[in-house]
Write a structure and sequence with these properties.
Blueprint (H helix, E strand, L loop, with lengths): L2 E6 L7 H11 L5 E4 L12 H7 L3 H12 L2 E5 L9 H11 L9 E8 L7 H10 L5 E9 L2 H4 E2 L2 E2 L3 H15 L1
Parallel strand pairs: 1-2, 1-3, 3-4, 4-5
Antiparallel strand pairs: 6-7
The structure holds flavin mononucleotide.
């Protein structure tokens, strides 16, 4: 069966982006979805010395196996200071040191949830530019602003729900 790996770019246990990942994953009908937390695959900050002396951290090797097995990815990331959170970037930097492209030419549904009104626009603009270089077949992006107002009792409000549903359809077509 087609496999999807779903995770947020947040290392916080109460992550709103993780909630959005869970929600989008629940809408997938044609594949099995594994929702993981990057905090379960935490690695030290990448340095050349660490790689040279100790090789790849075991959590990164484990995560890379999941990347290899997946046919597609669902990613929702917080925006930190207009950019990618360090934890997500560090994880992907480690993965990029292994053979092949990070996302291996597979579809990636890109999302961001924010508590403010911009829906992570800056980080989505940035990732829209760089994800193809990281080997992603980009689907989206989908930005969810004002999370507390637009995601109530575990449900996404309109027009966001319809917008996300369309992207999920495109994502499933691309798998
Ligand atoms: C260091 C830091 C920088 C942040 N910068 C931004 C920002 O540039 N834009 C924004 O919309 N929110 C920003 N926020 C707010 C986060 O988007 C908010 O905390 C969000 O809940 C994080 O997502 P998460 O709950 O999935 O971890 C920042 C938060 C932190 C801790």
């Amino acid at each position: 069966m087609t496999k999807i790996l779903a995770f947020s770019g947040s290392f916080s246990s109460d992550s709103i982006n993780h909630q959005l990942v869970e929600y989008a994953s629940s809408k997938i009908g044609t594949a099995s979805v594994s929702v993981i937390r990057l905090s379960d695959f935490e690695a030290p900050i990448y340095t050349k010395e660490r790689e040279r002396e100790f090789g790849f951290p075991t959590p990164i090797e484990d995560l890379r196996k999941l990347f290899d097995e997946a046919d597609g990815f669902i990613l929702s990331t917080p925006e930190y200071n207009g950019s990618v959170p360090a934890g997500l970037k560090n994880t992907l930097d480690w993965i990029s040191r292994m053979e092949g492209k990070i996302f291996q030419d597979k579809p990636v549904l890109l999302m961001a949830a924010s508590r403010g009104g911009r829906g992570g626009k800056s980080v989505l603009d940035h990732l829209t530019t760089v994800l193809p270089f990281w080997g992603a077949k980009l689907i989206g992006p989908f930005g969810l602003p004002l999370f507390q107002q637009n995601f109530e009792s575990g449900l996404l409000k309109e027009p966001f729900d319809t917008e996300l549903q369309k992207l999920i359809f495109q994502f499933e077509e691309a798998l």
